[in-house]
Fold this protein.
Amino acid sequence: MDNELVRKLVELVESGSSIGDPTDGALLLAHTVGYQAVSLYCASATTQAEAERPGYVLKAHALNSSLGSSPDSPNDSPSDSLTPVKEVEGCAELELLLGERGISPLPYSLAALLLDGLPVEAPKKALAVSIRSLSSEKGSGFLLLWGEPAVSALEAEALVEVGAPVLLAALKQAELELRVQSLSREVAEAEERFKGVEKFLYLGDMAAMLVHEVKNPLISIGGFAERLKKKIEPGSPAFKCVELMISEVHRIEKITDSAFRCMGNEFLEHEEEDLEEILTETLGLFGDEFAELGIELTMTMESGPVTVLADREQLKIAFDNLIANAIQSMEKGGKLALCVAKEPGHAVVDITDSGTGIDSEQVDSIFIPFFTTKECGTGLGLPISNSIVLHHQGSIEVIGSSGEGTTFRVRLPRVSGG
Amino acid sequence: MSDLKGKRILVVDDEEGLRLLYKEELEDDGIDVVLASSGTEAMEVLSEQSAEMDLVLLDIKMPGMDGVEVLRRVKEQWKELPVILCTAYPHYKHEFGTWASDAYVVKSSDLTELKQTIREILLG
């Protein structure tokens, strides 16, 4: 550093026109030999600012200047004085400074804003020296220099050049702090999401408990009702009551079994299975129902076998629910079409009905357990199908729904060569 | 069903209602029913009556010694004594510990399957 320059800066400070306290001159002198800057403004983006408009919070770090540290401890480490002494947010003019390179004159109003509340008087003239950290294309802050008369641009540049390594270290520190804050936010958000996942896992445990605590007494009720039924005269009012008890118990048993199946825990045995055979068997479970309801059934299949790795019985349950759902959506005389096709790596089954369709607002909800628009529905059929297909690394989607019908597309990984 | 008359079955379940239900249903068929409300009690009964027992009807989820542990001990000490696991949970049948059982029946208020399974095992 040029001694003449140092002398000039000492004169500036000792003139008392800028900082006000002569002892700060010593600090400034320490600063000017390359130790630290007077004040360093670091920019940190705020979430709120980002939401409303891109912006920054400018935090003034008093680096061993009169703003923050004791004159008796001029050798405080930079990190001790990185606690922001002031924050300025949402000032467009200051934000413009961050985009500047080099040195810019700082209007009085901005200097006043930056120094407002701090134990210095706003100078009539001040300079802002843009600082860029190594990792950012945008300005990360600026060095605020003031004096009366103003420090020349050349002198400011020299000052910055000497103090640059320290400034950059301070900036890095500030950036790390910002990163820690950001990571802390991410951890907090992840913890919240994990709580959600935990809740879902608890649902599986809860379902298991439900099966045990509800189903066992239910079996007693249903079993004794069956015994009672044998002792009552058929056709009598008491007989009808008992029959109703039995049918209600069976209904609740199905619901608890479905709920348990839906919430996971069902172990799957995967074997190579012919998908078309599974579908044919599933359709067979409906017996004469299609004819009785006047439903025209068509099935289009590939010419050769379509082989998937599957738990046969589970897939039958999945397709059973989808077909039952299709039937329920149709009035007498509807059409149900099943189409099996091969895609690279996948088998695709389209189940298309000519029913009333699904309300567009409800499409996203149909796989949610217990969601139903039907008076007698449990809201578990489609979620169970979805759960089973997902456990087969497949997917179900609604690819078309209107007042004239719905198509559910089931996609399952195909066995190579099958 | 007189062909089952005189057979003796140990029913092990922590649910009192189910113990009574099974007892009444099986006694209708002339079967002699012994009850145990826990795995520990079941082992105590078997230590005294194993020779007279023809079958064990065993719940899985019980406090203390569960059905899988009872099954293991029964097969270890009385290898030829048939055990039917009868549980509300369908998925235990995939667990290795249950494979030693002679049958696995999922509980239902409809006892048809259970009674048919008992009949098949008792009559061999």
